[in-house]
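Hi D.,

Good news: the full-assembly prediction came through. Inputs first.
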Amino acid sequence: MVPFLGHGIGLRNKHFPDLLEQGRRAEWFEVITENFLNVGGRPRAVLEAVRRERPVVLHGVSLSIGSVDPLDVGYLRDVRALADAVEPAWVSDHLCWGTFGRHNAHDLLPLPFTEESLAHVVSRVSEVQERLGRRILLENVSSYLTYASSTIPEWDFLTEVARRADCLILLDVNNVYVSATNHGFDAAEYLRSVPVDRVAQLHLAGHQDLGTHLLDTHDAAVPDPVWALYRDVVRRFGRVSTLVEWDDHIPPLDEVLAQAERARAFEKAVLEEAA
Amino acid sequence: MTLAELQALLHGRITGMVPGREDELRTEVVARPPLEALERVEIYAGMYLHRLVDAIAEDVPHTSRVLGHDAFLELVRAYLHEHPSRSPDIGQAGRSFGAWLRAYRGIREDLPDLALLERARSEVRAAADASVAGAEELQSLKPDALPGARFHFSPALRVLRLQHDVRPLWDALEGDAGDAPDPMPAPTTFVVWRQEFKVFHTVLSEPEAHALMVAREGGTLEEICATFAGEADPAQTAFKTVLSWFADSWVAAVTSQRA
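Then the structure:
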């Protein structure tokens, strides 16, 4: 299993000056992998400065593990080189697809939950883990559509990928809430079905309610229903490294850190209750 | 429908590359109130365009500002149709935008050059780190090795041959200084570079632009100096020019086969 890192935040450009001046005040940082591939200058300098003092995790958005395109071995080589240089606690990406015909939609598109998709993803996760020389974490994505061809519940699909490919799970609590609302499934059943021993990291984030659906925007504080679900997650999964994502309309560093602090307080309260 | 067929259907619709096929989408995507199947697909189509518009605007902020949001969005839509993103890094999606804009009519004539300058600045800002050579590396060569010295330039250096001098336009937009000046048509060589974390650009004289081209193509110091033969004091001009390349951190290394 992976180490418990505490409660971290994403490393974002807007906070670079504060991070350099005030020191690395979060317990750990998650880095968007693609932002640091073959990159120098200030971004690389900040990453190295942060890494000297805190654990860092690489979180990719372009693996496109469910795409029918061949795996992008050049991309995987670059990720491996970055991982070798940064020595992250782990490397993660999303259970989704985003490319077709080598054309990148730069989105986290949902997969149909079928036996065909399952076999396809499992074989590719195994190859990715081999090329990266490590186990990866895969994250459940928010979605706005489902497919008529799906025959497997999302939570069972995620569990089976992790079991058959022997990878770990990054459970995004906000994404569970968003997708449960958009598709009318029971978030509690999702959480009950995901195996405790596979969940190595949690994500918390904000979203927008557009009336017809929830949109996973990462542009606001974690809302109350997601905090409530986080309590249930901690009750079931115990202490798991937790990260607050805030990617748009990013507030000052202190505000993001306060969200990580709040997550720590929630976790402490739940674990004390259970003790 | 196989996984490959389903991905082709969805991807084509979301990216706008394959419009239509509504009946198939209605069959494959579940309609769940309050949204119909096509409305659900359109959520992704809208996000696709806006995400890439934002990413390219980050590369060329002044160009997008001059164009205005709606015109910029329509240009990016047309650009993506011809240049769909093929990189895992969304920051590379606008790599060809300035060059593509050159063929476009009905916009300010110097905007393509402004976009090329802005993109070069963006590339240089995050270009790979490299060692920086000082002039002492050249001076440390034995006298008989000097003429054969060759320069290896920093990855954080770009040279652009533009059709307008867009310095006044860039300065006005960067300083938020009122109306944009009129276009200044003139073949102009820009150089963009990074020193520490700061990005600079300037315009080169024709002799220096020629000398730098020779140097970047692997020419020797002797060949570089020869490009200044038409100057009043060729040796002094060549000396000063080459030293300025070192001072501005353009040179990563110096080698000479006779060293």
